[in-house]
Amino acid sequence: MTHRFNPTILREYDIRGIVGDTLTEADAYALGRTYAALARDEGAQRIAVGRDGRTHSGALEAQLVRGLTEGGVDAVMVGMGPSPMLYFATYHLDVDGGIQVTGSHNPADYNGFKLLLKGRSVFGAEIQAIGRRAAAGDWSQGSGTIEEVDVRSAYVDRLLEGFSGNAYRVGWDAGNGAAGPVLDMLVDRLPGQHHVIFSQVDGNFPNHHPDPTVEANLADLKELVASEQLDFGIAFDGDGDRIGAVDGTGRVIWGDQLLMILAEPVLKERPGATIIADVKASQMFFDRVAELGGTPLMWKTGHSLIKSKMKETEAPLAGEMSGHIFFKHRWYGFDDALYAAIRLIEAVSASGRSLTGIMDAMPKTMATPEMRFQVDESRKFTIVDEVRDRLSADGAKVDDTDGVRVSTGDGWWLLRASNTQDVLVARAEAKDEAGVERLVAQIDEQLAKSGVKRVEIAH
Questions:
Q1: In this structure, are 323 and 228 located in the same domain?
Q2: How confident is the model over 122-133, as pLDDT tens digits?
């Protein structure tokens, strides 16, 4: 047998598409067979499998498991839960890898698979290789077993291990995503008063889209914090690996600001350690880590790339603007929004201030939201190269870790190609509105020189 995946679903970090259109149950089966063959090549036999709360996750999971077992691999089913619970299961159980069926923070009609094998994320070239292997029908044969294991209470125990935070009044918004049931178990055991909304799993996402990095999706959480006069609020994405937060006044705490707050107690215990943020992060973050005696490192956007860099630099903490926070300090190094929330409560406690007070004390800058605009897939990387070459020739201060990040007297701006879509992404930050306008004008000027007009698309 051979199987061809729609090439659009073989993404940089995972396999993801629109169910019934670019992604089918036949794809789930073929992935199971192909992954089983890959696993057995590496001597892997037992694989943990989890799923999110989307309406089609159960059916995709069933076909995935059929493929795994017919390929001769044993499936250990951990049931529905957030992606980080599946990641935890790969450490907690006697397994050689894991697969989570999840559409992450995408709309309700999307779904996909996040793959782990032998302690690593399967991404990039390895995902393309899965496509080729399925097309060649290079599959193993066998009859693997299926067992079901409930890891939820072990996961909650581990989340709370060594917890040293104070009691606060906290609002929580699970967005009807897969983290809801675990969140309900967690808050029962946390000190303080907890107000939880939308913890019932509903793959239709009836209340709002489960992406906490878009401010409009935090409206319900802000309202809860205001009406109940809470200390702060925390929100999760559809599969619980990205965190969003607001302070007691409803101000959004962006990914790089969260990372600045979380870094302080880590650097007290690990002086001089490397703390990583992606190229979209504020200059304030890098300055603050240096001020705290840490070694700030700017790295490429993308959870698999960040995890690899953390291993290389032995960084205890890393994060992205998109709300992925990775703790190696007292944790496993994977992105887990529930664990990041626990550490946020601890960090606020250790600071001796309120989260609102911490936010008040942060340096003020003006930043654009992430600007996204469509370009031809074949041109997206070359446009960034053209911009970099022109600016370098002009003697501009350019960092090309991931796209181009240009520093000027006003602040900085970034232009990079999305790894997962035919989109260019831009951002700018300055001390004031006028500075931001000058930086955005530079972005427009560079795009125009490459024949692109900036027409923004919605997230």
A1: yes
A2: 999 999 999 999
